[in-house]
Amino acid sequence: MSCTEIPNAVRKVELFYDDLAPTYDHEQFQTAVSLSKRKECELFSARFPELFAGAGRVLEVGAGTGIFTIPIARHCREVTAVDISRNMLGVLERKAAAEGITNIRTILCDVEKSGIEGTFSVICAFSSLEYMSDLPRLVRKLVGRLDPGGVLYFITARRSFLRFFIQMGNAVRQKIWLKAYGSREMRKMLRSAGCDHIEINTHLFTVLNYGGMLLEVAARRAMPEEPAKEGRERRR
Ligand SMILES: C[S@@+](CC[C@H](N)C(=O)[O-])C[C@H]1O[C@@H](n2cnc3c(N)ncnc32)[C@H](O)[C@@H]1O
Question: Would you say the CB of residue 112 lies under 6 angstroms from ligand 1?
Fold first, then answer.
């Protein structure tokens, strides 16, 4: 992956996470935000056997301190962990080294601006796609990096009444307006990026089937159409 110059628009994100890195894991599990992180961990664990156990090359976008990267790395061939924050990746690298994990490749860059090299059997993201300025474009780019039949799996913010208050809180704290998406627009985005078998679920504070604050998405890159077998369709 070639790392290009980081534009100003994402500099705030980089600085925010560079500052937060030393206390990020504590915040994620020991404060009020742990409700959301614990739900993500629960969803991840449920998907783990199907998606990550025994996987080949995995790309994680916005890997942060490696809360998900490390368990994935223990059970797949190699993880490429991309993040814009040097300090977040520093924490990830120290945690991996402490556990003797050697199959994580960290790449410091803005995933929206950088070229991604190679292909992956799974591409995943946890609480990071809400930071992207042009998600439809990024999704097309990521799907293009999946092996045919490979899976894009992510958990991100779902647009909802409750989510709006979280977005406001975030704007005050991080000075960043996080994006949130509805299921329908997400499905459309994935379809036009070349996915089939699209599964979208909503979680966290779901009220009477009105969906929750999180979107959990699993979508497969469509397989190339099989060439029609010679003579098979011929009718007399
Ligand atoms: C809320 S944290 C999530 C970290 C990790 N995925 C987790 O669930 O603990 C969001 C992460 O996305 C990263 N990020 C945001 N925008 C990015 C971009 N354009 N390119 C790469 N990483 C980005 C941030 O630096 C941060 O580490």
Answer: yes
pLDDT digits (tens, 9 = 90+) for 186-200: 999 999 999 999 999
Please tell me if the CB atom of residue 142 comes closer than 6 angstroms to any atom of ligand 1. no
Residue 151 has pLDDT above 70, yes or no: yes
53 backbone dihedrals φ, ψ, rounded to 5°: -65, 120
Dist. CA 68–CA 12, nearest whole Å? 24
Cα(92) to ligand 1 centroid in Å equals: 12
Measured from the CB, is residue 84 less than 6 Å from ligand 1? yes
Question: What pLDDT shows up at residue 160?
Answer: 87
Domains of the chain listed by start with CATH number: 8-221 (3.40.50.150)
pLDDT, residue 231, reads 42
Ligand 1 pocket check for 200: Cβ under 6 Å: no
- Rounded CA separation 120/90 (Å): 23
80 Cβ inside 6 Å of ligand 1? no
Cβ within 8 Å of residue 141, ≥6 positions away: 116
Return the sign of the alpha-carbon dihedral for residues 20, 26, 29, 32: negative
Centre of ligand 1 to C-alpha 109, Å, is 11
Residues 6+ apart with CB under 8 A from 186: 200, 215, 217
